[in-house]
Automatic annotation (TrEMBL):
PROSITE patterns: ABC_TRANSPORTER_1, ABC_TRANSPORTER_2. InterPro entries: AAA+_ATPase, ABC_transporter-like_ATP-bd, ABC_transporter-like_CS, ABC_Transporter_VariousFunc, P-loop_NTPase. Keywords: ATP-binding, Nucleotide-binding, Transport. This is ATP-binding cassette domain-containing protein. Residues 2-232 form the ABC transporter domain. The keyword 4Fe-4S does not apply. CDD domains: ABC_DR_subfamily_A. One of its GO terms (molecular function) is ATP hydrolysis activity. It comes from the Bacteria.
Length: 237
């Protein structure tokens, strides 16, 4: 579903991502783990088609993000760690705007908004302006807008930070459901426990380079990775 080949990107003299190759298959949740500044957000933004990267190639559901950007963006939804939404709009206006943008038929949008708003306990808040939302409420609205689109690929940057335990639980269920329906998920996290319990696959990035990727059980069992895990755990603390 997502094919990243030899992705390389620099910000000035900082080599943020260095020759990274990673595949996220359909039907699987992949956890993208690394310490602060490892290159996770840069990779996710490149995959989402919002960061013009220096070298390499990325395809989403077979669509090259550089040569076929509209099809690639249509197939994926990206949630940044700090969603920048339109403060002057109500939550409902924002969702209607996204539904218009992605041409979601009226009956479907009503059903999906109703379903996801209920699931994230946002039904009573959608009439309020986004500027008055808490950080967690903004995050939930961004999640609803992503699920509303039924993306094939979901790219999430630290999605569990700021969510209450119930919303975190709901999100995990929705990620699993998206994969059951043939979609794929790539999300970044510092929390190893979340990755270990939720992910089918884990990819570890350090200083812009992919250290390892593969099925969670294999990656976490590999003794040579103990150092990487310890380092990440220290970082998380
Ligand atoms: N817009 C930017 N301008 C300059 N340097 C940047 C920019 N964005 C990221 N970087 C640098 O690129 C490197 C990778 O950053 P990135 O945000 O991808 O890491 P990350 O793994 O997502 O980190 P975190 O877990 O802290 O979010 C870091 O050295 C960072 O300082």
């Amino acid at each position: 579903m997502l094919e990243i080949s030899h992705l390389t990107h620099r910000f000035g003299s900082t080599l943020a991502v260095d020759d990274l190759t990673l595949t996220v298959p359909a039907g699987r949740i992949t956890g993208f783990i690394g310490h602060n500044g490892a290159g996770k957000s840069t990779t996710l933004r490149a995959a989402a088609g919002i960061l013009p990267f220096n070298a390499g190639a990325i395809a989403v559901d077979g669509h090259d993000v550089r040569t076929d950007p509209i099809a690639a963006k249509r197939a994926s939804a990206f949630l940044p760690d700090n969603p920048d939404l339109y403060d002057f709009m109500t939550g409902l206006d924002f969702l209607a705007f996204i539904a218009d943008l992605y041409r979601i038929p009226r009956a479907e949008r009503r059903d999906r908004i109703g379903f996801y708003a209920e699931a994230y306990d946002m039904t009573g808040n959608l009439g309020g302006v986004i500027g008055g939302y808490s950080h967690g409420m903004k995050q939930k609205l961004a999640l609803i807008s992503a699920f509303l689109r039924r993306p094939r690929l979901l790219l999430l940057d630290e999605p569990f930070v700021g969510l209450d335990p119930l919303a975190s639980h709901t999100l995990k269920e929705h990620l699993r459901a998206l994969c059951r329906d043939g979609g794929a998920v790539l999300f970044s996290t510092h929390v190893l426990e979340v990755a270990q319990t939720l992910c089918d696959d884990i990819a570890i990035i350090r200083q812009g380079r992919l250290v390892v990727s593969g099925p969670t059980a294999t990656v976490t069992r590999d003794a040579s990775l103990e150092d990487v895990f310890l380092e990440l755990q220290e970082n998380a603390r």
